[in-house]
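Hi P.,

Sorry for the delay on this. The queue was packed all week, but I finally got your sequence through. Input first:
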Amino acid sequence: MPQISISTFTDADSYAAALRGGQYEMFGKSSRPFTGKITRADFPRVSLKQDEVDVPWIVQFGGSKGPGIGFGFLADADSAPMQINGTDVTSNDVWVIGPGPTVFASEGPTRLRTMALPDAALIARSMTGREFKALAAGFVTRPPVPAMDHLRALHRAAEGLATTNAKELGKPSVVHALEEALVQAMASCLSNDPSSTAMRHSERHRRVITRFKDYLASRPVEAVHLTEVCAAIAVSERTLRAYCQDTFGIGPIHYLWLRRMHLARRALSQADPASTTVTEVATDHGFWELGRFSVEYRALFGELPSATLKQLPLERCHKTARKPQTAQSSPHRMSVP
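Then the structure:
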């Protein structure tokens, strides 16, 4: 189960002392009293943190220790702009906290989120052709807007789940799925390549798609995620995305999303509404934004997930099946690069 902590501070020194991963020195740039807050959710393989500081500040970071790596982004568009080693950073950007010394500076009140991966290979295996050593040097990148919005929403959902639904996060499968979703969302932002190129059906193409389908067939009732698929079939996301687009007309992220939606529908239709909730089924299948899940579920299947859950077995048997939406018309496709 993840460890949750919320700490508040009235001076910059104590705030800097609470930061992990290296040695920090922090200075407030305003005569206003310093007020800061750190909200942290530590999962087994991923650590999430939100920093809130209500005055302009400067932080000097001596460099990370160990094999882990961190990523950061402003929590919302209202946060004041920042500079990292002199490079302007806006709410549209993601930055990497590399091993070298780094200076962060804010011009005003700031809310930012960070994601730390103790195992650097988690993100390295998800990258689309980019060498991990290039990431470790530290850089700022501007992802496609849908990818950035999805990353923020997923962080908010993970934090909300951690603070309000400890029961769900007591399930190892839910925690693992949430970690995979967070890693993939960050990888999508770092790839910074929303385009895909159709490729001919080469022998390698056929082998990759065969391995992809075989892997899914070996897990008929499991909600699998892109990072673990790429690792299992030994192919980069970039290659799998191009091959899936050419073969299925959709990318692997959307393909796996459709699969998880159908698995969730199956679970809802087989569950006892007296002992099962839509929230449990949704999170069991990797859906953390419950409002979005309900909207997309209804668009795909023609009814709310709660309606599927409440149907009696006899009603399910006699219900007229609705043809699922095509991949081209699914609302989810537009929100995933």
